[in-house]
Amino acid sequence: MVRSVIGLPVVLGGVLQIALLNPVNADFTGVRTLLFQNVTPAGSRVLSPLGATWKYLDNGTEQGAAWRAAAFNDAAWASGPARLGFGTDQSPLGTTINRFVTGGSGPQITNFYFRRSINVTNPGAYSTIQFRYQRDDSCIVYLNSNEVFRSNMPAGSVTATNFASITVSGIPAALTFYTNTMSATNLLAGTNVLAVEVHQSTFNSSDLGWEMELTGLPASSQTRVNISRLGPSAVLYWTDPTFTLEHTTEVANPASWAPGGAASPVAFDPADSRRFFRLKK
Q1: Over the Cα atoms of the chain, what is R_g?
Q2: Which residue has the higher pLDDT, 242 or 34?
Q3: What are φ and ψ of residue 222, in 5° steps?
Q4: Which of 73, 118, 176, 264 sits 20 to 30 Å CA-CA off 4?
């Protein structure tokens, strides 16, 4: 039996190491240690966290365009913490929403609406905003009535009867986090409204899921290399993917610098030798 999925923390900040040890009735055939990184730049701020409470409508009705606006009255909508959805592969769920139009069988709902208000005191502090989200099967995301992106949905106008482009199948795909980063020009001082429509790929889909984090990112600042101790290894990591790591044992010799890692994070044995590191673009 091979386990192909290892659950990671929903909220991961910094560097996480997973080591494969002590095989039973098996042999190692690949890498034994895996490193995962989620490091946000200094000055960034989570504007809407994972696990946040969303208003939602799960009755199968067509809502047109008015529901995206800040002034829309969603008082009659239900609310609950993310992750929102249904189905056995959507664990863990914060809120289970309706699958069927009425009762426990019959026609299924194929389009779901979500809304959330956030307060931003100083939108000028951010040059970009980053959406990090899980969607099963697809989504269209609006910020203050403006569509900012769609994922796994065809182009053009959509209604509650439109389906996702492809089916999201299995736990790894359903729990994948996608990322979209864009200019922060749509942010307003004060109340901002996130509105999301999630579409199924078929009329009888067995699951649905929605979760999202929104982070404000400041203008680019000086990139630095960070170091952390994980078990017997020292791990170097940085946030700008355009930089690569170099190392040397002779800092006074410019010709001695050699590639140390093309992508963050990088692990090394601190007992090897005295070494110096730098980032190069």
Answers
A1: 23
A2: 242
A3: -65, 130
A4: 264
Task: Please report the pLDDT score of residue 94 as a whole number.
Answer: 94
**What single letter denotes the amino acid at residue 44?**
S
Contact, 57 vs 72, CB < 8 A? no
Q: Per-residue pLDDT averaged across 129-154, rounded?
A: 96
Question: Residue-wise over 86-125: b if at least 16 C-beta within 10 A, else e?
Answer: bbebbeebbbebbbeeeeeeeebbbbbbbbbebebeebeb
Q: Average pLDDT of 226-245? A: 82
Three-state secondary structure string covering 220-237: CCCCCCEEEEECCEEEEE
The b/e string for 26-63 (b: 16+ C-beta within 10 A; e otherwise) is: eeeeeeeeebebbbeeeebeebbebebebbbbbebeeb
Cα 157–chain centre separation? 26
Q: Two tokens at 131?
A: 């959406």
pLDDT > 70? residue 167: yes
Contacts of 30 (CB under 8 A, 6+ apart): none
pTM as predicted: 0.70
Residue of 80, 25, 41, 14 whose CA lies nearest to 219: 41
Q: What is the pLDDT of residue 194?
A: 98
Q: Which residues contact 254 (CB under 8 A, 6 or more apart)?
A: none
Q: Residue 140: which pLDDT band, with cuts at 50, 70 and 90?
A: very high
Instruction: Give how far Cα 4 sits from Cα of 24, 27, 50, 126, 170, Å.
Output: 16, 16, 25, 38, 12
Q: What is the DSSP string of 158-177?
A: --TT---SS---SHHHHTPP
> Which value, to the nearest 10 degrees, does the dihedral of the CA atoms of residues 41, 47, 52, 53 take?
-170
